[in-house]
């Protein structure tokens, strides 16, 4: 290892203790409070309190992702503020899981509605902080603004890769298409606010098998599958009867309607991945990963996808959620 390329934590003055005098200005008082809540991390010698955070991840690759959430699109005016903060972090942890990476640090951008005051800002932040603690993620920075509009929250997460990144490109004809957990009904049931990001599952899968391609399901199986197909230049067959439909989808609907929920509702935040048939069989033979894993299809040559239902093939279109511009 080139010692000049790797910063050492002893070279940095640690910014962990608050100054003795409190800052009376509301923005900085909130930031001071966040500093007391942020959590120490052995690989983050400098977190909240300076112009930038300093990360010292050792000899590893980093992954970085960001999601922006806005009232009216990802949550409503009635959503409990802690669940908004939780979701803003959780969707990023789901992206980190989709690369089979380990989350390390979060950076939170807040545009706060002035009318809701400091208590609201704290409740949003507490939702972020509680989930961050669960996953040993340090809140290492951010930015705080306010305005007369509704809440906007943006979270960036930095993670480390224990091995090669698992991208969307890499699916091969013959691969099994597999998915964690049942799908559908997340938005209607509120599961999109409380889901568990599949980090443990992704890290366990990385240890057990060779993951060829992976994505987290945010826009619906039918839409997100096409990201893997396009990135990998392959096609797919999906087995309709093998797709596990979540109990959040009303049980009294006909099967084809229930299936449409599983294919298109979105915000499931499960993992969709492809592996060799040998690795796929190995996974199905395992007792449990905590979350059930199903084989729902196969990668084929070409670029199109079909759904096989009652033994008959029908084309599968990529329609899933897309923000209109
Ligand atoms: P600057 O003006 O240099 O950008 P700021 O006053 O915006 O500094 O932020 C001061 C410190 O507080 C920085 O370390 C920044 O990352 C952190 N910070 C600001 N807002 C938040 C927040 N909502 N969550 C976490 N850290 C924050
Ligand atoms: Mg700033």
Overview of this protein structure:
- The chain is α+β, with helices and mostly antiparallel strands and 325 residues long.
- It contains 8 helices and 11 strands.
- Strands 6-8-5-9-7-10-11 form a 7-stranded mixed beta sheet, sandwiched between helices. A 4-stranded mixed beta sheet has the order 1-4-2-3, with helices on one face.
- α3 links the parallel β2 and β3.
- The longest helix has 18 residues, at 81-98.
- The protein binds adenosine-5'-diphosphate and magnesium ion.
Are there runs of 5+ residues with pLDDT below 50, and where?
A: 1-15
Helix % is 25-40%
SSE sequence, one letter per element: HEHEHEEEHHEHEHEHEEE
The separation of the N and C termini measures 47 Å
Index terms:
single chain, 325 residues, alpha+beta, seven-stranded mixed sheet, four-stranded mixed sheet, 8 helices, 11 strands, disordered N terminus, binds adenosine-5'-diphosphate, binds magnesium ion
SSE diagram, text form:
Layout: H1 26-37, E1 61-70, H2 81-98, E2 102-113, H3 117-134, E3 138-147, E4 152-161, E5 176-180, H4 186-189, H5 199-208, E6 213-216, H6 221-232, E7 235-239, H7 255-264, E8 271-275, H8 277-285, E9 293-300, E10 305-309, E11 312-315
Parallel strand pairs: 2-3, 7-10
Antiparallel strand pairs: 1-4, 2-4, 5-8, 5-9, 6-8, 7-9, 10-11
Helix pairs in contact: 1-3, 2-3, 2-5
The protein binds adenosine-5'-diphosphate (ADP) and magnesium ion.
């Amino acid at each position: 290892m080139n010692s000049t390329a790797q910063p050492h934590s002893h070279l940095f003055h640690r910014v962990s203790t608050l100054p003795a005098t409190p800052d009376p200005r509301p923005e900085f008082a909130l930031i001071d409070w966040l500093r007391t809540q942020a959590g120490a991390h052995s690989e983050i010698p400098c977190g909240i309190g300076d112009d930038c955070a300093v990360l010292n991840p050792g000899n590893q690759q980093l992954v970085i992702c960001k999601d922006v959430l806005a009232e009216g699109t990802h949550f409503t005016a009635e959503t409990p503020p802690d669940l908004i903060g939780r979701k803003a972090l959780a969707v990023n942890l789901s992206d980190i899981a989709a690369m089979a990476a380990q989350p390390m640090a979060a950076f939170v951008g807040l545009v706060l509605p002035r009318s809701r005051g400091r208590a609201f800002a704290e409740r949003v932040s507490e939702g972020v902080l509680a989930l961050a603690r669960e996953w040993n993620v340090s809140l290492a920075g951010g930015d705080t603004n306010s305005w007369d509009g509704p809440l906007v929250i943006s979270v960036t997460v930095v993670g480390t890769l224990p091995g090669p990144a698992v991208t969307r490109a890499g699916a091969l004809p013959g691969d099994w298409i597999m998915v964690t957990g049942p799908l559908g009904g997340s938005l209607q049931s509120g599961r999109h606010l409380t889901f568990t990001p599949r980090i443990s599952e992704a890290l366990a899968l990385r240890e057990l098998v060779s993951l060829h391609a992976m994505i987290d399901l945010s826009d619906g199986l039918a839409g997100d599958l096409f990201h893997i197909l396009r990135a990998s230049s392959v096609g797919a067959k999906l087995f309709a009867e093998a797709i596990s439909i979540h109990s959040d989808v009303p049980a009294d609907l006909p099967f084809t309607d229930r299936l449409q929920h599983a294919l298109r509702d979105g915000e499931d935040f499960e993992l969709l991945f492809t592996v060799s048939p040998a690795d796929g069989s190995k996974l199905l033979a395992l007792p449990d990963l905590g979350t059930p894993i199903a084989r729902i299809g196969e990668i084929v040559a070409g670029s199109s996808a079909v759904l096989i239902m009652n033994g008959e093939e029908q084309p599968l279109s990529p329609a899933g959620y897309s923000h209109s511009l």
